[in-house]
Design goal:
The chain is an alpha/beta fold. The chain has a seven-stranded mixed sheet, sandwiched between helices. The protein contains 18 helices and eleven strands. Helix 14 links the parallel strand 6 (269-274) and strand 7. Helix 1 runs antiparallel to helix 2 (16-27), helix 1 (2-12) packs parallel to helix 3 (31-46) and helix 5 (66-81) crosses helix 6 (87-120).
Amino acid sequence: LARRVLDRVGEQDAWATLSLDGELARSGLEERDRRLAAELVYGVLRHRLRLDRALAIHAELRRTPPRLLTALRVAAYQLLLLDRVPAYAAVDDAVDAARGLGGAKLAGFANAVLRKVGAAGEPPLPGEARARLLVAASLPGWILDELAAVIEDPKELERAALALAEQAPLFVRANLRRGSREALVARFAAEGVTAEPVPDTDAALRLSNLGDPAQSAAFGDGLFTVQDLSAQGVARAAAPQRGQRVLDACAGVGGKSTHLAELCDDAASVEAADLSATKLALLRESAQRLGLHGIHTHVCDLLTPELPALGRDFSSVILDAPCSGLGVLRRHPDAKWRVLPAQVESVAAVQARLLDAVYEVLAPGGTLVYSVCTFTAREGKQQIGALLQRRPELQLVGEQQTWPHRDGGDAFYLARLVRKH
């Protein structure tokens, strides 16, 4: 299953998360094996550069058929970085896969390469600091350069880069309209799930041993929403109040829209706009599950004349803009090998247009919250600096960059601005 997902990512440019979810839904695997399949997929994508470096000592990877390379990577990950599967089992499985791809010749090749990898282990890391960090964090050079542009201290740069290759923790947001966070912790404990309240937050919990969140009875009862810790800060920054009109400008599946509604006890009018009707349908399902009735969805393109149809004079606008997504590499490690440097500049241009568009519907005295799940200067500080030059009526009242190694949540940039009267 893991090899099928990785082949699809490599050959069809598919997203790993969607492909894996689809395969698991059809698999009939027990929870233990579902977790192993996910570990193999994400582990190979997180550490691909390290794995290829170990394999390249014993094989010419450029001449290796892509599907055979996938089988070698999956086995190498188990041999070098995972202690759950016995070495002989990992090798035998890859050899069987190679035999299915090309008969005895490829099976013998895979067997020879993997036995050498198992015996030799991972080669020593390079001595030079940048090269060493590139391998240890398994990052393309340009992404490390973007990171270095915003983190000058070498020791913190290393911690930040390595954190992007780790597995992301699972955070959820308690629905405080349906009970206290403490009551939800007790409910999770009854389901065999460990839930730790996150300090300095009122609704965030860090979970262990949950499995598929949708299978939790507490999820079905609308007691929580899966949402990263950094993302939970966006709606809080908007601080919606009862009776206000609030715009979630790129609402997606609604994590922030539902949070906005919960923060004002479902007593504000939350207008959720997005290009995708599919995502907005999922948002409506979430709102119903959570018992929220003040959210109204709008399929529209904010960069067309459709935007004024939503109305004007919003008290708060959230723009969680499309971005390079480099801040969520822990959750979407395939983006390391998918996103290209030129895309940062192109998406930044879209962000600027979106900021100008939503400014037009923000009421005097209203709050604009801009956020992106990335860390590039062009999409963060520089983007807001340029906005303030274009729109002197806006005042920056706070900004924040979160980091996995420092804050636990994803790498998010957030700016809070107020439109002067």
